[in-house]
Amino acid sequence: MGCLWMFWVFFCLAAAPVLCVPPVGLQPEQVHVSYTGVPQSMIITWTTFNKTESWVEYGVWGGKLFQLTAQGSCTLFKDGGDEGRKLYMHRVTLTHLKPGTAYVYHCGSNDGWSDILFFTAIKEGSEWSPKFALFGDLGNDNPQSLARLQKETQLGMYDVILHIGDFAYDMDEDNARIGDEFMRQIQSIAAYVPYMTSPGNHENAYNFSNYRNRFSMPGDTESLWYSWNIGPAHIISLSTEVYFYLEYGLDLIFKQYSWLEKDLEEANKPENRRVRPWIITMAHRPMYCSNDDKDDCTKFESYVRVGRNDTMPVAPGLEKLFYDYGVDLELWAHEHTYERLWPVYGFQVFNGSMEHPYVNPRAPVHIITGSAGCREKHDGFIPAPRDWSAFRSTDYGYTRMQILNSTHLYLEQVSDDQNGRVIDNMWLVKEQHGTAAWK
Asked: 261 in helix, strand or coil?
């Protein structure tokens, strides 16, 4: 054994130096795509551990491979952990894509290329029916729904994935290596379908730096809040965390609120609401829940719902704002359960009718879908559901949504515990949108 070791030392000293230097991180990994919010475009994001150029080579499915090229940017992300690990985040925006067309691509540089991957460019206009998978609270440990989501995504069942906060548990842990591993895990989903995100409480470390650096959402707020259009819907993603991490700036509450007000005002202009009548919000911590814990949604005076009166100035909540601008559907996570609410405003139920509660309801509908699977397992419910709680489940799973047209939207809950069985479903039918629908 000693002779072999001496031989290896002699070989390393005598051979070309390149044989004995440690490997360098030039290979692309953690590839994911997201929609820019601009028609006919998509952004490809990936990570390397050394600085390299940022290229995507791509082409139409069935055509000549890598006929088109696009160059982007590489930015340094230094993690806040004690090692100060350096990661290089690459972003390349593809433009002039043909709506509804499948593209084959790989990303990287002449220092190293990813596997061959594919995505479909988002269709234009409002006369089509986008399909979504949506969930929150998916971790590296116990990611129970992941395998089913991987298969369904690669089967082409979804146009978009909505991840409503809480990733990896937690992306900053082990000097951000947990974040790396999570992004590797979701590549089998996120490299094929736009992966649209909201921040959750588990992203709070170092002022949400892992979240802000790893994802590439529309707008210029580092993915904290943004909006975009798809089919007959205007979708708004926002941060509930601005109400809880005041050390990162009380002004964030007011900046987001002001932005939300302007965005909702624009979406409600008659010419815009006519084309995209559905307004859907997604954010991590819900306003309502019937869980048996001490989370914000269990309190009557929830920060998210009514704001904070312990700040100066007083911080406004979101329920009245969303009601006043006729938001149709509010998607939440955070609670590691699934809960469907009756149409509710101010703790009062406003069903369309006793027989058809979701046909022309007179208040927004809330869905909580935070049971994708993580190391914190399930949350419990209080024994008796509240008056506004319509259906509850502690099964691991996720939600599917399809916006059929301007009047019909379908939701169903998949139980991974029950081998993919649909355990809940509903049609939301609205012949009128906007505040007129509440009357």
From this structure: helix
Tell me the whole-structure pTM to 2 decimals: 0.94
Residue 37, CA distances (Å) to 23, 64, 123 in order: 38, 28, 12
Q: How much is the pLDDT for 436?
A: 92
> Among 244, 163, 245, which residue's Cα sits nearest to residue 198?
163
Which residues, 6+ apart, have CB-to-CB distance to 219 below 8 Å?
37, 225, 226, 227
Share above pLDDT 70 across residues of the chain, in percent, rounded to a whole number: 95
User: Among 5-9, 209-213, 258-262, whose mean pLDDT is lowest?
Assistant: 5-9
Q: Which residue pairs from 317-324 have beta carbons closer than 8 angstroms and sit at least 24 positions apart in sequence?
A: 318/238, 318/257, 318/260, 318/287, 319/287, 319/345, 319/346, 321/257, 321/260, 321/261, 321/264, 322/264, 322/281, 322/364, 323/363, 323/364, 323/435, 323/438, 324/435
Burial class (CB in 10 A: 0-12, 13-18, 19+), 404: middle
Which pairing describes strands 348-349 and 344-345: parallel, antiparallel, or unpaired?
A: antiparallel
Q: What pLDDT, on the 0 to 100 scale, is given for residue 128? A: 98
pLDDT digits 0-9 by tens, 9-52: 444 444 444 445 555 789 999 999 999 999 999 999 999 999 99
Pairing of strands 160-164, 131-135: parallel
Are 72 and 91 contacting, i.e. CB atoms less than 8 angstroms apart?
yes
Q: Which two structure tokens, joined as six digits, stand for 280? A: 């859907």
- Distance between CA atoms of 203 and 142, rounded to whole angstroms? 18
Q: What is the chain's mean pLDDT, rounded?
A: 94
Q: Is residue 4 left, alpha or beta, with left meaning phi > 0 and alpha meaning psi from -120 to 50? A: alpha
Please write the tens of the pLDDT for every residue from 299-358. Answer: 999 999 999 999 999 999 999 999 999 999 999 999 999 999 999 999 999 999 999 999
Which amino acid, one-letter code, is at 199? Answer: P
Of 308, 313, 314, nearest in space to 296 by CA: 308
Per-position b or e across 405-428, b if 16+ CB within 10 A of its CB = ebbbbbbebbbbbeeeeeebebeb
Between 173-190 and 205-214, two packed helices, what is the crossing angle to 10 degrees? 30
